[in-house]
Specification:
With 607 residues, this protein is of the alpha/beta class. The strands form five sheets. Strands 3-2-1-4-5-10-9-6-7-8 form a ten-stranded mixed sheet, sandwiched between helices. An eight-stranded mixed sheet has the order 11-21-16-19-15-12-13-14, with helices on both faces. A two-stranded antiparallel sheet has the order 17-18. The longest helix has 23 residues. The chain is elongated. The C terminus is likely disordered.
Length: 607
């Protein structure tokens, strides 16, 4: 246990929510004054079950853990959940990157798996101190029994025993059948006032432990390094006998001091490679959020300020006079006027011919016509062009875009996107998804929207980009990302912009960088079928273009860019030719004017 002034971090890994407060209290007591506590929930599913089935449990864990992160200053706000057939194995593999000093685990015992991992694997492969706590009787009152032979676990074992005992006493049982009492242990036994009794046994250590355990509420034992060498078992006969013969909770400690133990070489925990389907299911469970998880705007503001981030909201618009006023007033009043979660709101207009610009300006929101932004690079039609150019005028570190045709607008359409970015630094891009009612005649049906998504986008993702098959609505118009990521990828100028962003961000940053949030219901004006046909045509072109890079197939040069639309009207039945070709804008970090404006971040991105 490190008692210096250096930062000390504990990772608490839990598989059950009941008694969560007791576990967190124990972990916080183990911390030195300058320490930090990281919380992780472990959702283990049987191998016969899809990992996506863990989505609900993952959200339950996030809600539970986040409440403690808000309440305690020493609990880090990077709470997370692992959904897997072996979630603890994944956590152990990632411990080195988190600089964890001690791993505290809700342990199932030596003869059972703990979140898909054996006791041997935990003790062999965790690159830090380890404390395994079994049962829940340790939460009661009474003395704690510490059983040690001396060696590398003395300090850690004593610290854990005294922490468990809290205001109660500690009994030290020293097994001296092979080794004399070490000077450190003798000094510890004599000098610590919390040690009420010291018992030395020279034979049949197991029976002595079992006999003493009945009068204690927990037994703390050390796992020796000899038991962790290749081909051996850390689940020693002594530990097994004690657990089998007593109801007293067993606590196993293993100190990590490789510099003083030459024979111990920490190994890498070998995880069996998950199938692609399992990877997607796991991603769906762990990276699918609900906007209600982020409804505490003050907590989001605190995260934003702690990380020193700025946030911009861009509102792309084209002839949205019927809805843009409500969109602006709803979002501005809640997230700028009442509480400064957003640093700016800007409308990016695509040459509206109605009162869209007038309404926005009357509400105090700046309006930029996208053809006037970066005029030296020219201008193209389309929403994607507006979004690409908006990166130049929006100033935030995090940028969110929300369409302005939403008739049931609510602040959660924005904070639901921002939440995963503020809570999880690994997330670079967040997509919104929702139910989309569709108007049939004068009736509004609960389902039926998102026809291009279900008939074109998702089938193509499943065929060629199965990593993204868990994205509910890849074409949704509500999304947010970090500037440092968005400035590094191209933007298609028209209907293909959402598809292109998703595919390119996957290739550049990986699946774990993408998240999605349930925004529940989105009501807007449904597109006529002919427009959906044009959209599908453009999206297909994006897929073909990106498939060239992924699979080395040359096809885009030979495809037809013009689409013959069937016009069937009362007085007209004909074919109408439409040229549908999205222009691909390069990463904006490659544009000199952008580099001059955002040189500190953009230069790093292109470098």
């Amino acid at each position: 246990m490190n008692n210096s002034n250096q930062s000390y971090s504990i990772m608490l890994a839990l598989s059950e929510i009941p008694n969560l407060e007791h576990w967190i209290t124990l972990a916080r007591r183990l911390l030195p004054p300058n320490g930090e506590l990281h919380l992780r929930g472990l959702v283990k599913l049987p191998k016969t079950q899809s990992l996506s089935e863990g989505t609900g449990k993952a959200r339950e864990w996030r809600d539970a853990l986040d409440s403690f992160a808000r309440d305690y200053g020493d609990v880090r706000d990077d709470t997370g959940v692992y959904v897997d057939h072996r979630p603890l194995a994944r956590l152990i593999t990632e411990l080195p990157s988190l600089n964890i000093d001690l791993l505290l685990v809700q342990w199932n015992g030596v003869n059972t798996m703990t979140s898909g991992v054996t006791t041997d694997e935990i003790l062999q492969h965790a690159p830090c101190d380890v404390v395994l706590v079994h049962g829940d009787l340790w939460m009661s009152e009474g003395p704690v029994l510490l059983s040690l032979r001396g060696g590398p676990n003395v300090s850690l074992g004593m610290h854990v025993a005294k922490t468990l005992a809290n205001h109660d006493s500690v009994t030290v049982l020293h097994a001296a059948d092979r080794n004399p009492v070490s000077p450190n242990l003798r000094l510890l036994m004599r000098s610590d006032p919390q040690i009420a009794r010291a018992v030395t046994v020279s034979s049949d250590v197991a029976e002595s432990l079992i006999r003493e355990a009945s009068a204690h509420r927990a037994v703390v034992m050390g796992a020796t390094f000899n038991q962790m060498q290749a081909g051996s078992s850390s689940s020693s006969p002594l530990i097994q006998r004690v657990q089998e013969r007593t109801q007293t909770p067993l606590v196993l400690v293993r100190a990590y001091h490789p510099e003083s133990l030459d024979f111990h070489v920490p190994g890498s925990l070998i995880l069996s490679e998950a199938t692609l389907s399992q990877q997607v299911d796991r991603w769906f469970a762990e990276n699918t959020f609900h906007h209600q998880e982020f409804a505490d705007l003050e907590a989001l503001l605190a995260l934003k300020e702690k990380q020193g981030l700025t946030i911009s909201l861009g509102l792309p618009a084209l002839n949205e006079e019927a809805s843009i006023g409500k969109v602006i007033t709803t979002l501005k009043s809640t997230m700028m006027d009442k509480l400064p979660l957003l640093d700016e709101i800007i409308v990016i207009d695509s040459n509206s011919t109605d009162r869209t610009v007038e309404i926005a300006e009357s509400l105090g929101v700046p309006v930029y016509r996208h053809p006037d932004i970066l005029p030296e690079v020219g201008s193209n039609h389309g929403k994607g062009e507006a979004l690409w150019k908006s990166l130049y005028v929006l100033k935030g570190d995090i940028i969110a875009w929300v369409d302005t045709d939403i008739t049931n607008i609510s602040p959660h359409f924005v904070y639901g996107l921002l939440g995963p970015l503020l809570k999880h630094t690994s997330v670079q891009y967040v997509k919104g998804f929702y139910q989309r009612p569709i108007k049939v005649g004068e009736q509004l049906q609960a389902y039926g929207g998102g026809r291009v998504t279900e008939l074109v986008a998702r089938p193509l993702l499943n065929l060629f980009y199965p990593e993204l098959s868990g994205v509910v609505q890849p074409l949704s118009g509500e999304y947010a990302g970090r500037r440092s990521a968005l400035e590094q990828v191209p933007f298609f100028s028209g209907y293909g912009v959402e598809t292109g962003l998703l595919l390119d961000l996957l290739e550049r940053f990986g699946l774990e960088s993408i998240a999605q949030t349930d925004l529940e219901v989105r009501v807007h004006h449904n597109q006529p079928l002919v427009n959906l046909s044009k959209m599908s045509f453009a999206i297909l072109q994006v897929f073909m273009d990106r498939l060239e890079n992924r699979y080395g197939i040359r096809m885009i040069e030979n495809i037809n860019r013009s689409m013959k639309l069937i016009i069937h009207e009362p007085d007209r039945f004909a074919l109408e030719i439409n040229e549908i070709r999205d222009v691909e804008r390069p990463p904006i970090a490659s544009i000199e004017a952008y580099l001059n404006r955002f040189r500190s971040t953009a230069a790093a991105a292109v470098g």
